[in-house]
Design brief:
Mean pLDDT: 98
Number of helices: 14
Bound molecules: 4'-deoxy-4'-aminopyridoxal-5'-phosphate, glutamine
Keywords: Aminotransferase, Pyridoxal phosphate, Transferase
Protein name: Methionine aminotransferase, PLP-dependent
Distance between the termini: 45 Å
Family: Belongs to the class-I pyridoxal-phosphate-dependent aminotransferase family.
Helix content: 25-40%
CATH architecture of the largest domain: 3-Layer(aba) Sandwich
Cofactor: pyridoxal 5'-phosphate
CATH topology of the largest domain: Aspartate Aminotransferase, domain 2
Order of helices and strands: HEHHEHEHEHEHEHEHEHHHEEHEEEH
GO molecular function: kynurenine-oxoglutarate transaminase activity; pyridoxal phosphate binding
Length: 378
């Protein structure tokens, strides 16, 4: 069999979670909370099941959920999306990203990806027959607009961006968004904006959605995930907002790769959005407290902290501790120290080694403290 994805193995998240389990290590690798969502949310899902919401919903998603999202996006970003024709519910952000790429990228088209990048982007482009043009973020993981401009060619069909950024925790500024708008204005490049960590920004910073910049919104798929916002990564429900013409093409692909997404979760989420419309407003303070606790603990280890402006990830440089390459260091850390982390090399398509690893701090205080106690021995 000739592989469609010859370079691809099993994702680092699966590999590290399995190793953590095998070694009994504290899993700060794969990004997921080790605590439960607000009980009102599963209660709303149970109620939806009991009320008979158990058959296929409309292809684009439960209308109540799309309407609640349209209102939320309008309130947050001043952008009007028609829930009927411009918002689609997806099986997590992963399926939204793949579907968006498949919908717009033709074989041979180029897609700009800023690296380090989430590991699903390059395979999505490959499956569409596209060519990923990797453009490194700068040494501080900020966008390098000269390098991006230099990567644009007549074949550039789309660009993938991600802020708040996994893995670096960087958050794009308003100026970054404006520069991106100016850069893309004379082109017909489609922007795929991965905003799954939209509600995890710290120190009073603001998330700047592509939806908030009309010039960008007009060419963008804005992607998010309920998994991150409501502590339910296993539910695999996400969404994409995009102008009519883009949504029309998106749904042509969506209807044949999942058709639609499970009904009771969507009803439960719609009910929760209606009855707890401010729930996401707690997230910055909630996660900032965890970030600060984790950073304070790490500061007294031999790991060197990198900035963390958003997301639930903290990166650290282990250069003072070990000469091992990142993947080998993470394996050693999991086996010998009992803490699992993710090597940043997993986010680099080209071999890049900066002795940097990523920890997920979406954990209970007791979990973070136990991990810190082990890391203090480094
Ligand atoms: N994009 C980024 C940057 C992510 O970190 C994740 C989650 N790990 C996803 C997309 C996928 O989100 P979901 O679990 O909703 O598919
Ligand atoms: N997005 C999560 C992370 O970055 C993992 C999701 C997955 O396991 N595919 O850790």
């Amino acid at each position: 069999l000739r592989s469609r994805l010859p370079q691809v193995g099993t994702t680092i998240f699966t590999v590290m979670s399995a190793l953590a389990q095998q070694c009994g290590a504290i899993n700060l690798g794969q990004g997921f909370p080790d605590f439960d969502p607000d009980p009102k949310l599963p209660e709303a899902v149970n109620a939806a099941m009991r009320a008979g919401h158990n058959q296929y919903p409309p292809m684009a998603g439960v209308p109540l959920l799309r309407e609640a999202l349209a209102e939320k996006i309008e309130a947050l970003h001043g952008a009007a999306y028609d829930p009927g024709e411009e918002i689609t519910i997806t099986a997590g952000a992963t399926q939204a990203l793949l579907t968006a790429v498949l919908a717009v990228v033709h074989p041979g088209d180029e897609v700009i990806v800023l690296t380090p990048a989430y590991d699903s982007y390059a395979p999505a482009i490959a499956l569409a027959g596209g060519v990923a043009r990797f453009v490194p973020l700068d040494a501080h993981y900020r966008p390098d607009f000269d390098a991006i401009a230099a990567a644009i060619t007549p074949r550039t069909r789309a660009m993938l961006v991600n802020s708040p950024h996994n893995p670096s925790g960087r958050v794009w500024t308003a100026q970054d968004m404006q520069r991106l708008g100016t850069l893309l204005a004379p082109t017909d490049i489609v922007l795929i904006s991965d905003e799954v960590y939209e509600h995890m920004v710290f120190d009073g910073a603001t998330h700047h959605s592509a939806a908030a910049y009309p010039q960008l919104a007009a060419r963008s798929f804005v992607v998010s995930s309920f998994g991150k916002t409501y502590h339910v990564t296993g539910w695999k429900v996400g969404m994409v907002a995009a102008p009519r013409e883009l949504t029309r093409e998106f749904r042509k692909v969506h209807q044949f790769n999942v058709f639609t997404v499970n009904t009771p979760m969507q009803h439960g989420l719609a009910h929760y959005l209606r009855t707890q419309p401010e729930a996401h407003l707690n997230l910055p303070a909630f996660y900032q407290a965890k970030r600060d606790r984790f950073r304070a603990g790490l500061a007294s280890t031999r790991l060197r902290l990198l900035p963390c402006e958003g997301t639930y990830f903290q990166c650290a440089d282990y250069g003072a501790v070990s000469d091992l390459p990142e993947a080998a260091f993470c394996e050693w850390l999991t086996r010998e120290v009992g803490v699992a982390a993710i090597p940043l090399s997993a986010f680099h398509p080209d071999p890049v080694e900066r002795s940097t690893v990523r920890f997920c701090f979406a954990k209970r205080e007791a979990t973070l403290d136990a991990a810190l106690e082990r890391l203090a021995r480094l």
